[in-house]
Design a protein that fits this description.
The protein has 295 residues and is of the alpha+beta class. Helix content is 26%, strand content 38%. It starts with a helix and ends with a strand. Keywords: Signal.
Length: 295
Amino acid sequence: MKKLSAIFTAVFLTVAQSVFATPLQLDYYGVISSSADSNMLKMAQDFFFTQINAIDGVSVQDKRQNPGTVLTSVPDTSSTHAPKIAFYAEIREDKKDESAVFWNCIFFAGLADSLGGTTYQKSKNYDSYYKMLTNSKDTIHELLDTIKIKTSENGSLSASSKNSAFAQKSFNIEKLSGIWSGEPFTDKIVILRGGRGFIIFKNGATMNISVSAEENSEHGSLIKIRQIGKPNASFYPELPREIALSVAPNASPIEWNFTMNDENALSGTKTTLLQDDSKAEKVKAGNQSVTWYKK
């Protein structure tokens, strides 16, 4: 009997060691921010990578295209495939009043499409950059713990079943109404009831938008948002002003195609005019990866 117990214990320990030795695999894409403090941002994104790399049970690969450059929009994570997790952060600089500045740091962990495509997030406000750097490790740990739980439930990602359940509900477009954020050149995105809304840009321009939705059992709720009204060069703040003025009058309406897998997040692509990489003075229609978050 003792021999049988010893064999069982040995087998159990071998299996347990194998399970717990499997690391959580992350692809690190860096930091998104519109803050002007580029030196602090570069330090932050290097610091976050170092913190993740030091966590037991986590394997991380640096996927930054240029480690010395901070992102201005949501990174393209299409090269991250299961079982890897796409990881990045966003740092927002906000003011309580004219003299008091605080930093909102949000960490994102996105699952590959084959695993449900859900992006989980954890955020915290800090009243100094120093506190954000020294205390952010706890927030990273909390987010990764959430991912570990989701990936271990029922031997697969519970996010997939969660998304399917969400998609099966009768979608009411009114639930989109509210204030959203997520693009570096926008100050506020407002979706109103009745399938309409507007976007206020940081340059002062306002774009009216239409909002529609349709159900898709495989991908969740498909949301289409489209520019309505007259074109405006200020709707293209990413482009040099002279180029925007010349191309805006004949441009097709800007359009967003989102998948809604979570009630507080819209992820998808934005179809707009992009600067041609081969010819800086020219533009072309193209898609950008975009995620909006409900405030």
